[in-house]
Design brief:
The structure is a single chain. The chain contains 8 helices and 7 strands. α1 packs across α8, α4 packs parallel to α5 and α6 packs across α7. The two termini are 28 Å apart. The chain has 2 domains: 201 residues, Rossmann fold (3-Layer(aba) Sandwich), CATH 3.40.50; 36 residues, no CATH class. The mean pLDDT is 95. A 7-stranded parallel β-sheet has the order 3-2-1-4-5-6-7, with helices on both faces. By secondary structure, the protein is an alpha/beta fold.
């Protein structure tokens, strides 16, 4: 399917690996010119080179922390008038809520709620004036269901979801959509770190810990960054102009609900 976005300009935050890279790759395949972002310059260079070689699109790389005003300024300097924004950022590490002090909680809310809102504030009006905009926020299944130790991440992302619910309706008539993608158990570095911890706690092998978790998922497997990226690219396409204010679960059926 031609997504109708070839030549569009996209900023994909935290995109040198994992789900962010999956989104960047799918958008590059659709013909978008990209600004990719991360903290590891060498990894960003490798990602940018790979995407340029495979898809023939323009790829700029910005080494910066999107949680900071300086990082956001650098991203928007590289792409002042984006057509597409994919908000993504690492979440706070797994902690028992009793270990969270005020400073850690503020940092987590900045990472997973305030920063994406700030990015949207800076691009939404321009998108509306040009008559096209697609904003996708990568949140988490934990917005819908509790995950032990991820209370801060869950709360911040849920706050982002609630905050943007009315904002999405504000821009819908001007062909600017805002949607959230909620990954479940995806085969990423973050998941593998959790598996290693679970295996150590249970005294089993990494393969056994993975098999136990996969068995809990109706699809019988973990998701991939590639398939996650394809859904993101569709949400950014011309065909998704009537899709806004939605929370799309990509979890293999893990979340048990009819609605």
């Amino acid at each position: 399917m031609d997504l109708g976005i070839s030549g569009r300009k996209a900023i994909v935050c935290a995109s040198s690996r994992g789900l962010g890279r999956g989104c960047a790759e799918a958008l590059a395949e659709a013909g978008c010119d990209l600004v990719i972002n991360g903290l590891d310059g060498a990894r960003l260079d490798a990602t940018a080179g790979d995407l340029r070689a495979r898809y023939g699109v323009d790829v700029k790389r910005v080494v910066a922390d999107v949680s900071t005003p300086e990082g956001q300024k650098a991203l928007l300097a590289a792409c002042p008038s984006p057509d597409i924004l994919v908000n993504n950022n690492g979440g706070p590490p797994r902690r028992d809520f009793l270990e969270l002090d005020r400073e850690k909680m503020i940092e987590g809310v900045i990472q997973n709620m305030i920063s994406p809102i700030e990015m949207i504030q800076q691009v939404a009006e321009g998108m509306a004036e040009r008559g096209f905009g697609r904003i996708v926020n990568i949140t988490s299944i934990s917005v819908r269901m509790p995950l032990e130790g991820l209370d801060l991440s869950s709360g911040a992302r849920a706050g982002l979801t609630a905050f943007l619910a009315s904002i999405a309706r504000r821009y819908a008539s001007r062909n600017v959509t805002i949607n959230n993608l909620l990954p479940g158990k995806m085969d990423t570095d973050r998941l593998r770190g959790g598996l290693e911890r679970a295996a150590g706690q249970a005294g089993v092998s990494l393969a056994e810990a993975a098999a136990t978790q996969e068995a809990e998922i109706p699809a019988g497997r973990f998701g991939t960054a590639e398939e996650f990226g394809k859904v993101c690219a569709f949400a950014c396409s011309t065909h998704a102009g009537y899709l806004t204010g939605q929370n799309l679960l990509l979890d293999g059926g893990l979340y048990p609900a009819a609605f």
